[in-house]
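User: Hi! I'm a student and our assignment asks us to look at how structure tokens line up with a sequence. Could you show me two examples?

Assistant: Happy to help. In each example below, the sequence comes first and the structure tokens follow. Example one:
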Amino acid sequence: MAPTVIITGASQGIGKATAFLFAEHGYNVVLAARQRDRLEAVAEELQKSGHSTLAVPTDVRDFEQVKRLVETALERYETIEVLINNAGIYISGPIEKFSLEDWHQAIDTNLWGYIHTVHALLPHLLARGSGTIVNVGSIGGKTAIPYLTPYTTSKFAVTGFTRALHSELAAKGIQVCGIYPNLIRTSFLERAIFRGKDDLDVRERREQVKQILEVPVIEKPEDVAWAIWNAVKYKRAEVVVGSAKLSVATDNVFPGLMQWLLRTVFKNRDQN
């Protein structure tokens, strides 16, 4: 029987690339994301290539929807071997400009979304005594990034969540891995949240990220997908992807320099 993987945030970017890679390696692929049309388009594309796929529109912020996702996947495939938590949202701006709603958007999606899926699936994995959980984190969960405070807060929490899960569950046969990429050339800007001192500041922040994504060394979704695949295949606890390695190393050796550089890059019109 073919193994099964659940992938959240699977309608585009890293999630979509990962779905195709795992399908090519013989996995049944359960796709989850909020945008039904895009999700079903990915599923149709996979099915046309002869892969077994199930699309379940899911908002990971809602535990009842996540519970239904897991139940539907188990009804179809009976077992689930791998969970890949990938759904997330990017949020940028001066700390004082974020509303509590902005904070909830970041933490409810980037952290609680991961907690929801793990909580729903863990009884099945523990009963089987095996399985793999992959949490796609961020360099923002390794290095404090000013002007991305809600995002960084959520991603540092994901790092701690992942490491604690790994420490506890490895002895029970469940592998847990954290994946830490830099900014990736995807369409995440469509749903990103930008705040600023004024409308011009907001526009410039969005344009700044667009320009960063055009830099040739920025990784593609397929680069992260391969990192995820290798982590699952070789049972790795942590993978820092591509250019993120340099960011982590610089922050470890020259933390003051790294923080100055990040503040300079991201402050835009905030001159305080």
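Example two works the same way, sequence first and then tokens:
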Amino acid sequence: MQRCRHEPLTLERIDARPVLLKLNRPIRARIGGVSDWPVILIDLHTREGIVGRSYLEPYLPNAMRYLIAMLKDLSDALKGRPVAPADLYIIARKSLHIVGYPGLSTIAVAGLDMAAWDALAKSAELPLCTFLGGSIGTVPAYNSNGLWLIAPEAAEEEACRLREEGNFSALKMRMGRAHLRDDLAAFEAVRRGVGEDIHLMVDFNQCLGIGDALLRCRAVDELGFEWIEEPLLYDNFDGYAKLCDALRTPLQLGENFYGPLDLHRALQMNACDLVMPDFMRIGGVTGWMRAAGIAGAAGVPMSTHFYPEVGAHVMRVTETAHWLEWIDWVNPVLQKPYAVRDGQVVIPDAPGLGIDWDEDFVRSVLVDL
């Protein structure tokens, strides 16, 4: 019986490059707006010649300089070590323990972790989902590329365009306008555009206090949303527990969980009905898999936040996999962006994550920090 073996890898160095990408539909939320999207491109070089790739999206351009410095420090500290993601995850986190796990520490470790998993799966000549014990296939996704706090009268047309971009059966819209009536008008416009059969999610982007959240969430509680996402500040688990008791619509939380322990605490406090970790905050693939075990044991549906390429692979091995958030903001730097067909993200039959940089385009968007 022939055994599948992959070549052991040794970490040589980590290269990290900052780029700024122009968003086709700028972010317009009550907590702020973004037109230029910061991305750190990570290349984990091994002595054996295999390069693992990942990226980070730290929201603020200034944050890139600190993360790149941290990745450089991790590169120096880990040079010569085997590319074993679970080991690197522990070593890297412990090296930053003195400054605390939440925040940039976890984000830097997540970038390293995702690149390490990509390299290891490449060395086995397997797609990451197959390397993790799953199979190549598709993952149901909702389009999250728009429907920010635009004028209600513009929401109908934008919703139609978003649906048609990949024949999506689900879309996310945002709420949190100055007046509740304008949020409701935007919802009505979206429904006019896409009809009753499209699944809709709503995200308040942490913009409400508990009183306003109770008022507004109750006002949309009977509208048929798949979930209501982050109406309160992300760490107000007590407030979320009150909302969970008060609402019929499932409450979604998790893009700001810093590691699996935060997910565990939220579930222990009954602060949410659904979870959607973000890869750079949960701790990359390793952090996700550990969090997925907790969610699976609790029977809680688990969706992704950003990073659709990584998300598609791990959703194929996640027990309570729910929805993948589709955003295409990083597509311009990829040689072959992932495809979406009939609302499903298609995992390519390629080793690792199957991503490579479009170096000509990368050169045009590199920034000095």
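Here is something you could point out in your write-up. The domain at 130-346 is CATH 3.20.20.120 (TIM Barrel).
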